[in-house]
Amino acid sequence: MKSITNYFISQKKKINKILFTLVIIFIYVIGTKIPVPCLDKEYIQFIESLYVSGLGDFKFSLCILSLGIMPYITVSIIIQLASKIVPFLKEWNEQGEKGKNQLNLFSRFLTLVLAFGYGLGMTSSNMLGIILLPSIRVKIAFFLVVGVFICIWLADLITAKGVGNGVSILIVISISKEVYSTFRFLYKPGETNLIPSTLAIYDRFVIFGCLLFLLILTIILCSAYLKIPILYYTSNINKTHEAKIDKHVPFKINSAGVLPIILATSLMNSFDMISSFMKPDNKFRKIIISYFSISQRQGLGLSFFLYLSLILLFSIFSMFMAINPHDVTQHLSKQDSYIEGIKPGEKTTYKITDELFKITLIGAICLTLLAAIPDILYFCYSSKLPPNMKFGGTSLLIIVGVALECVQRMNTQTQLTSMHNKLF
To answer: Would I find Membrane among this entry's keywords (predicted)?
Structure first.
C-alpha cells in the first residue's frame, strides 16, 4: 500500500495534468449542448430534429460550439503549406519566435473570416429549410465564431497545462460520438430508427469485419516506417555512445497523418457551402448538387472519385513539402555518414527521393483506401442504415494517432523524470 501511495505521489504532476485535461474536456462537452441565442425554442427543436434524423442537407446541431475547432485546423494546414511557397509567409516562417507569432495571428484572422462564412452558410434557408432574417443570421454566425475561438482557447489550455496536443484531443472528443454510435448500432440496430428495414446478422458481421480491417490499417499507417541503413566514416566510436547513434534514416509510411483527408474534405465541403448561398433554381447550384455534393460522394458519383484523387495528390504533395531529400543528404554529410552502398552527393539525394516516393505512394494508397471503404460500405447498405450513420475511417485514424501521441509523450516525460532522479 505504501509503495502505491509513493507511486501516486511521485506522479503528482502527471495526475494533475490528466485531471486538468478532463476538466477542460467536460467544459467543451457542456458547450456542445448549449444552443445559440437569437432563436426561439420551436426553431431550436426543429433544427435538432433535422440533425438527429439526418434529413435534408443539415448535418450540425446548432449550438455554441457547433463549428468546433475545424475552421482553425483548415486555416492552419493551408498556412503551413503556403509558408513553403508564398514569399512573405516563408519569410515569417524563417524569423523564429517573432515570425511564429505573426503566422499565428494571421491564422486566427483567417479563421475569423472562414468561421463567419461557415456560420452564414449554416443558417441559410438551403441548409436549415427555414427562412431567417439577415440580422438573425449575422447574430447566429457571430456566436458560432465566438464558439470557434472558445475551442481554440480550450485547446491552448490543454497544450500548455494538460496532456497531449489540445487541438487533437478536442477533435477526438468531437468525433468519438460517431464511433460510439456506429458500434452501438452494430450491436443493437433495433434501437435506431432504420429506413426501411434492419440489418441482418450477416450484414453486421461484414460491416464489423470491414471496420476491424480499417482499425488494423489505421495502426499500420500510424506506426509503420521505412529504415534506410546508414554508416559512419568514424570507426573509433566509444562503445558507450554507439547505442545512442542512429544507424538508419526512418521515413514514416504516413508522415502527413490525416492532413490530406482534412484538406480534401474541406475542399469538397466548400462546394456545398457555396451552393447554400445560391438560390434553389440557380444553374450553378444544380451542377454542384448533381456532381460535387456530399450525397453524390456517398453514392459513389463523380465527387467520390474526385475526393479520392485529392487525397492521393495531397498525400504525395504534403510529404515532399515536409521532407526535402536534399536537406536530408546535407544532414548526413554533416554527421560524416552515408547510405550503405550509395556514394554521397547527388546519388544519395536520388536514392532518398526514390525511397521516399515509394513509401509515400504506399502510404497514400492506404490512406485513400481508408477514406474510400466507409463510403463504399454506406453505398452498399444505404437502404438499411439511418441517414446520419457514418463509418469513420478518418475518425479511427485520428483517434489512434492521438492515443499513440499521448502515450509517447507520457513515456517521454516519465523517462526524463527517471533520468533527472538518477542524475540529481
So the answer is: yes
**For each successive 10 residues of the chain (424 residues), what is the average pLDDT?**
64 79 87 75 57 45 77 80 77 77 85 83 59 74 87 87 78 74 66 53 77 78 78 57 60 75 74 68 71 65 80 80 77 75 77 82 83 78 63 66 67 52 46
Report d(CA 348, CA 334) in Å as an integer.
Answer: 14
What is the gyration radius of the CA atoms in the chain, in angstroms? 25
pTM score of the predicted model: 0.68
HSE-CB of 242 using CA atoms within 13 angstroms: 8
Q: Is 353 exposed, middle or buried (0-12, 13-18, 19+ CB in 10 A)?
A: middle
In sequence order, the β-bridge partners of residue 338 are 231
Report d(CA 51, CA 383) in Å as an integer: 19
**Grid cell digits, residue 83:** 509558408
- The CB density around residue 45, as the number of other CB atoms within 10 Å, is 12
Q: Taking Cα atoms as reference points, which of 306, 323, 163 lies closest to residue 254?
A: 323
Greatest Cα pair distance, the chain, in angstroms, is 79
Phi-psi region of 392 (alpha: psi -120 to 50; beta: other; left: phi over 0): beta
Q: What is the dihedral sign for C-alpha 286, 288, 290, 295?
A: negative
Instruction: Report DSSP letters for 225-286, one per residue.
Output: EEEEEEEES-----HHHHTTS--EEEEETTTTTTHHHHHHHHHHHHHHHHHHTS-TT-HHHH
List the grid coordinates of 213.
480491417
Instruction: Tell me how far apart the alpha carbons of residues 273 and 316 are, in angstroms, rounded to a whole number.
Output: 27
Residue ranges of domains in the chain, CATH in brackets: 13-163 (no CATH), 175-424 (1.10.3370.10)
User: Quick one: how far is CA 134 from the chain centroid?
Assistant: 33
Q: Which whole-number Å values give the CA distances from 100 to 82, 91, 108, 136, 257, in the listed order?
A: 14, 10, 12, 37, 22
DSSP annotation of 338 reads: E
Residue whose entry in the numeric block shows the C-alpha cell 485531471: 19
**Sheet strands side by side (includes 225-232):** 248-252, 225-232, 337-339
Could you tell me if 273 and 118 are in contact, meaning their C-beta atoms sit under 8 angstroms apart? yes
Of 138, 110, 113, 108, the residue nearest 123 (C-alpha): 138
Residue 251 grid coordinates: 521515413
